[in-house]
Amino acid sequence: MGSSLSLLITWLTPTYSYTPTASHRQLDKPFVIIFGSVPRSWNIEEWKEVSDKIRGGKSSSTLRYITPYHSSEGVSFEGTLDAATLGGAGFVSQVYHTPFSLLPSGPPISGPGPYSAFFIEVDPLPSTHPSLINKFTFGVKNHNHQGDQSSLIYQCDFTVPLATPQADHNNKLQRLVKVRIPFKELVPTFRGRPSPDHTPFDPALTVSQISLMVRSFFNVQSGNFFLNVHRLGVE
């Protein structure tokens, strides 16, 4: 990552919400790309919308390739968030349901393994549209949760900054924003509400679901949105 977009990580309230930063990845730090490379490309056919329509809302979203027919270059999560119909409780997400493991293949590993966080590399939002929705939610679910715990999802909110006038628009890698989401900061939520009594996210278990979401936070935000996501991985 380049230094053209110089932002410090800002801890918000609650503590599981972040303002991301553009920064260099440590070269000696192991990482794995889940989506966003030639061997691990995005597949929009495997993502499905989950939204407030199940409760009578009107929010909608799509997931499309940033560059048509180039699935490894990233996806755009875009749509409209309706906050009015359900009294400020609107939400819409795109969800990936194919199970996978975060740990390397081979003998079982005790402890969290070599990784401690998810990361998402996104485009900053255009400075010409400062009113666009800028707060999103990343969600993940462990595979072995059954019964009541089947509704348990671990989530983290993050805010995407506006592009700066100094951003080098001729070099996409120079202006990507990296959002780092430590496993320990993923908050267990049960049916949409924080549930601190539940067990924390366990990276040793199979991941059964990943989601990208936007929600109204009770009339804090609504309207059109888009988020260009280039890579999603663990480090």
From TrEMBL:
NADH:ubiquinone oxidoreductase intermediate-associated protein domain mapped to chain residues: 43-96, 174-229
Signal peptide range in chain numbering: 1-17
Key word Metal-binding present: no
This protein's record includes keyword Acetylation: no
Keywords for this protein: Signal
MF GO annotations: unfolded protein binding
GO biological process: NADH dehydrogenase complex assembly
Pfam families: CIA30 (PF08547)
Protein name: NADH:ubiquinone oxidoreductase intermediate-associated protein 30 domain-containing protein
Protein species of origin: Puccinia striiformis
